[in-house]
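Ticket #4471: structure export looks truncated?
Reporter: QA, pipeline team
Priority: medium

Steps to reproduce: submit the single chain below to the structure queue and open the exported record.
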Amino acid sequence: VKESLYSACLVKDEMWFGGEYTLFRVHTSSYAVTKYNGAHSAAINALVFTNGAVWSASQDAKIKVWNARTC
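Actual output as written to the record:
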């Protein structure tokens, strides 16, 4: 990961991280990284996991909901 990280959230066997514009998923045992470039148009300040979904909030004044199972 080559950008600043502003938020983190544990989702079962993955850590989710919010960066400057990118959402990252890192598998906790294999360390495989999945990137979602352009997830937001500004820094992702908050991540919350609830009811099978990850909610992300950003300085772009948007909140997005990600299905943790299919994303």
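Status: closed, not a bug. The export was complete when the record was re-opened. Leaving a note from the reviewer for reference: The radius of gyration is 11 Å.
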